[in-house]
Amino acid sequence: MARTGGTSPRLFESARAAIRRRITELFNDASKGERPILRRADALFAPDSVAWRVNGDIVTMMIGGVSGLLLQMLHPAVLAGVWDHSDFRSDMHGRLRRTAKFIAVTTYDHAEHGLAAIDRVRGIHDRIGGFLPDGASYCASDPALLAWVHVTEAISFLNAWIRYAEPHMPVADQDRYFAEMAVVADRLGAAPVPRDRASAEALIRSMRPALRADSRTREVAQLVLNQSVGAALTDAASGVVMQAGVDLLPDWARAMHGLKMPPAPLVRARAHALARTLGWAYQGSPNHEVWAADVTVWPRD
Questions:
Q1: Which one, 47, 66, 82, 206, has the greatest CB density within 10 A?
Q2: Which positions ≥6 away from 132 have C-beta within 8 Å?
Q3: pTM here?
Q4: How far apart are CA 268 and CA 271, in angstroms?
Q5: d(Cα 117, Cα 112) in Å, to the nearest integer?
Q6: Which pLDDT score, from 0 to 100, does residue 246 have?
Q7: pLDDT value of position 2
Q8: Which residues of 36-54 are buried (b: 16+ CB within 10 A; e: fewer)?
Q9: Nearest CA to 198 among 178, 169, 170?
Q10: What would the mean pLDDT of 168-191 be, rounded to a whole number?
Q11: Is residue 77 within 8 Å of residue 130, measured between CB atoms?
């Protein structure tokens, strides 16, 4: 018995470390020397900000990211930008990983790194444009288009957090989240940028007449929802995230995509279980600490 008691903690820590390493591999390109972003006291947002609270949960951010992407692509110009200027067919995982890295850098890294990341993305947007199937032109730097991408992303991240982490989140904190995330949207050139939940919901309602779903929308959506990340257990977890992302969509958006779902209670139970598992795995992780500016090397796994 004494021997079992002595080895169990080590086994638990080994299991935690193995899960964290796998998550690190999923979200960081080792060939480029990428590592998880350390949380910094001098980030764009303070450690006690709502952005730090919401944007730091892996499961809710993945669920919100999937839901937000499915919402975004209902706008013909967003879809065209992905279709014309992205390697989504061969590297959808890379696209999602780059989005996750952008959120991490702009939320937690040194403020100058966050601002530089925003400016790089703005520069990319300035070079992206083309024509829709009906001949109308589009430009990725269009302020209204950027506002659509921003609001769908922000509300999806927040809704996933509320559903799976903080169901009784005060409305005042929800409003603070939009006000904080507006810092990023403003610098990207988006307009109008909502600064509270009511304004975010109103902006989405105002954009609905412009939304469409066609064969291209369905192709991109299926590539998002059916991607493989390389291992059976990881793919199983990814499947839970994808189903929960679809479940998080508004009914009208899910109907536009023509997506059917298993019963919502089953989807949400699986997502809650995944969130608990990763929450356990990240106990004691350096991801949850605030590091001084002179700490430049990832301190430990």
A1: 66
A2: 76, 77, 80, 138
A3: 0.91
A4: 5
A5: 9
A6: 96
A7: 41
A8: bbbbbeebbbeeebbbbbb
A9: 178
A10: 98
A11: no
